[in-house]
Amino acid sequence: MSANERNVVSFPSVSESRRQMNESFLKSSDPMSAGMNSRRLDLLSSLIRRHISDGRYEGCQVAVARNGSLVFSRTFGSSDEITKRGPVQDDTLFVLRSITKSFTAAAIWSLVEEGRISFHDRVADHIPEFGAKGDCKHAVTIFHLLTHQAGFPHADVTKEAWADHRRMRDEVCSYQLEWTPGSRIVYHRYAAHWVLAAIIESITGTDFRDVVRERVIDPLRISNELFLGLPEEDHCRVAREHSPADRLGREIPFHTAENTAEWYLAGHPAGGGTSTAYRIEQDRRLPSQKKAPRGRRRPDPLARVFETDIVPMLKAAPGVRPVTIFEELLRRHPELGAGIRRTLERRIRAWRAIHGEEQEVIFRQTHEPGQRGLSDFTDMGELGVTIAGVPLDHRLYHFRLAYSGFEHAHVVLGGESFIALAGGLQNALWSLGGAPREHRTDSLSAAFCNLDRDAKDDLTRRYEDLCAHYGMRPSRNNRGIAHENGAIESSHGHLKRAVGDALLLRGTADFDDLAAYRGFIDEIVSRRNARNAKRIDSERTALQDLPDRRTSDYEEVIVHVTSSGVFTLRKVFYTVPSRLIGHRLRVRLYDDHLDVFVGGTHLLTLPRGRPHPNGKHDQVVDYRHVIHSLRRKPMALLNLVYRDQLFPREAYRRAFDVLRKRLPDKKACRIMVDLLALAHERGCEAELADQLTADLNDGRLPDLNRLRTHFAPDPAQMPNVVVRLAPLATYECLIGTAEIGGAA
User: Fold this and answer.
1) Which of 266, 373, 458, 462: disulfide with 436, CB 3.0–4.6 Å?
2) CA atoms of 701 and 355, how far apart (whole Å)
3) Distance (Å, rounded) from C-alpha 276 to C-alpha 227?
């Protein structure tokens, strides 16, 4: 036998020690019994021997199982030809590379299954410093990480962070975005799973390698066949990765960091797992019956300081945070190093479970039908909803019956105001068809003045009147203790996740208008209520009857219209028809609109604006209110205070910018005013905007005469109305001769 032939010989499928353990693994079977072609397996063996002989790789393991039986198991070649480590054995470990990602992801899934995290949680929700730089990185979610949409595919951590997980956390928080999260799918070789590892450690307080082992590897009963973070005593089992030669005999460059003890020990979450091929085990006993106690694999770094330093601190200050003890411990014993933090936190948690103080107990309550309804607001900004491409800054008013789980949600554009509370609550009650005996909130600023914990008279007058109108007793939980309002607080999260999932299935978070988005929310809430339909129907019989009418869910304000044809209300500037200049108007202020009255006559409805976060006034402008005056004074458009808000669509603003660049200001203003007048008089605002966009994209200025002709009424479509006048004698016949004579 030649030297080359000795290099490619296959070794026995299992060692003698493995044969003694074989009964606990899959039963061996011949290929024919399992319905496989043995000749094909022989061809596979021949192909592998040829590859090794050609230098494509030095050795490998192959295991094939079918229908619960192991039908093929072979080892080939050497585990390291360079160091002459020896032939590949059944227990030889191979680096799994990106297959490791599936085990890290499985640990994340297990946390989701327990309800400790959600796929739509932002990374910054669990690692606050991740989104602290103010860029779009705060929007990265766990879903983005798992689906390679996070936006930093080329990021990585340094070698020093492999063992120092405090540094690893700091380095993943410093990743730089290459594009907006969720906008592209690009393979993240390492970065995304380092972030997932940091999330696992933040949630569990445990080294991510231990979490993967305890949640994924141990339940599969392959703890001696698969590792994420390989103990030093098993490093000798790893087959060294090498660079094969190309067709010209040249060695292909290869990163040697993966052949080091540091790499094996690090348990890289995206590519550092090691495993054998012969790792499929079957046993009738439950995993809990087979699991042997885990022994310590590393020396205990806290052995000499826990009882002498840590326990006295825990006893002296029971409420002290583990991070404070960690910092004090490093000050006293700097040789311990920063890598002990997670171990310290686990040990403190275990000590407190045995020796710690009693904790507050949450008492589950029995809810009676028709007794309690709850209200709260929840912010929806994290979902990224847009209306016609414009981000929608909004909240949801959320009402829920504690007994049956009936829900009502209403999109609120402002803050937690009394108007939003009154409107949302009344909509919920009238949709339900009855009122509970108690209405509970979590000390909403809209409903309570929050003057004093014990003051029972801090209910605002309007809120008291609202509850009294429906026969409800107002109540609230103790300030700062959210779990007392848990019947709705927990439901917030479920509703937001349902909305987030529905947006994902819809494929976009953009809606044509606010009404479409509100209908979308109503449909989701309706589906949730349908699941509890029987329970809701049974509770309806226990509700109080509604009053004859709703009570006011608005504020009423008197405003004065200035000579500019505007009025200002709550730092917002509104235009009205010029005929109202000098008049005092009565305005009813709702959450999303204003109703304007002169005396008792309703004149018009305006969309409600809100001041900017920096305190700057907002402007709500309708060009139709001022266009007749602008036609007489077109140059007023040039420096008009609210000029940008005057244009009803983006195409009009673009048109004015182009006109000013290519024409004198006077002519540009005249043409722009005429375009606005055309949109108003012909009722073609949207169609004219499309024409303007087409002209601008083709590099043409708007042709006013052509546009007037285009939008002029079509004579062919004008009805031909013919009026025939009946003779007066016809009416005399209808009246009768006697009546005519009497009239005469």
Assistant:
1) 373
2) 81
3) 10
DSSP states along 348-417: HHHHHHHHSPP-PPPPP-PPPTTTEEEEEEEE-GGG--EETTEE---EEEEEEETTT--EEEEEESSSS-
- For residue 624, what are its two tokens? 């139709």
Q: Are strands 386-387 and 510-511 parallel, antiparallel or unpaired?
A: parallel
Cα–Cα–Cα angle for 89, 90, 95, nearest 5°?
Answer: 85
B/e letters for 652-668, b = 16+ CB within 10 Å, e = fewer, are: bbbbbebbeeeeeeeeb
Please check whether residue 290 is in contact with residue 330, taking contact to mean a CB–CB distance below 8 angstroms.
Answer: no
b/e code 332-367 from CB counts within 10 Å (16+ = b)? eeeebeeebbbbbbbbbeeeeeeeeeeeeeeeeeee
Going by C-alpha positions, the residue among 366, 432, 440, 441 that lies closest to residue 403 is 366
Torsion angles phi and psi, residue 372, rounded to 5:
-135, 135
Confidence of residue 286 (pLDDT cuts 50, 70, 90): very low
Tell me the CATH number for domain 388-540: 3.30.420.10
Tokens of 403: 């007994």
pLDDT tens-digit map of 349-363 = 999 988 888 887 777
Residue pLDDT, tens place only, 520-576: 999 999 999 999 899 999 999 999 999 988 887 788 889 999 988 889 988 888 999
- Domain residue limits, the chain: 3-90, 97-243+257-283, 306-355, 388-540, 555-620, 634-717
Q: Say if CB 634 and CB 584 are below 8 A apart.
A: no
CB 140, CB 122: distance < 8 Å:
yes
CATH classification (class only), 97-243+257-283: alpha beta
Instruction: Return the structure tokens found at 486.
Output: 């848990």
Under a CB-based contact definition with an 8 Å cutoff, are residues 163 and 169 in contact?
no
Return d(Cα 340, Cα 342) in angstroms, integer.
6
Please check whether residue 538 is in contact with residue 453, taking contact to mean a CB–CB distance below 8 angstroms: no
| Helix orientation angle between 341-355 and 165-173, rounded to the nearest 10 degrees | 110
Instruction: Give the list of residues 6+ apart from residue 705 with CB closer than 8 angstroms, or none.
Output: none
Of the candidate ranges 61-70, 77-86, 423-432, 534-543, the one whose mean pLDDT is the lowest: 77-86
User: Which are the contacts of 222, defined by CB distance < 8 A and separation ≥ 6?
Assistant: 275, 279, 280, 281
**What is the pLDDT at residue 479?**
56
Q: Tens digits of per-residue pLDDT, 498-528? A: 999 999 999 999 998 888 999 999 999 999 9
C-alpha to C-alpha distance for 175 and 193, rounded to whole angstroms: 13
Contact call for residues 208 and 201 (beta carbons, < 8 A): yes
Contact call for residues 631 and 680 (beta carbons, < 8 A): no
Q: Which of 137, 151, 103, 145 is nearest to 120 (CA)?
A: 145
Residue keyed to tokens 């060695």: 251
